[in-house]
Amino acid sequence: MSGRASRKGGDDSRCPSCSAPVLRQLVGDRAALTVTADLRSLTPEQQAAARTPNRLIWCLKTGGPHSRPRLRWTGRSHPTDCPHPHVTDHQCPPAEPTTLF
């Protein structure tokens, strides 16, 4: 479902470069960030490997059947036993090498 991003919702679509499914959304109430996150859920081990100072992990809170998923911060106050999937900022995979001939 593709559509215009809203303040509380988001725009689930595809990356224009690599066509991976992503969720684009504003996260935060005051100094909000525009986040483009992969929709693939990560295990705790994958989260640790993917997390860098410039690549954050997000909690993907899913509501009922009539509400859109919302990204939430996973800071110190985030519960360790959170039942929601966790995703990371999107990064396109390396491009396949091409030859000129």
**In whole angstroms, how far apart are the ends?**
39 Å
Strand order of the largest sheet: 1-2-3
Characterize the largest beta sheet: strand count, sense, and whether it forms a barrel: 3 strands, antiparallel
Helix coverage percent: under 10%
Mean pLDDT: 84
SSE string, helix = H, strand = E? Answer: EEEHEEE
Radius of gyration computed on alpha carbons: 15 Å
The overall strand count is 6
Secondary-structure class? mainly beta
Shape: globular
Low-confidence runs: 1-8
Count of helical regions: 1
What amount of the residues lies in strands?
Answer: 25-35%
Explain what the structure shows:
This protein is mainly β. The protein has 1 helix and 6 strands. A 3-stranded antiparallel beta sheet has the order 1-2-3, with no helix packed on it. Strands 5-4-6 form a 3-stranded antiparallel beta sheet, with no helix packed on it. The chain is globular and about 55 Å long. The N terminus is likely disordered.
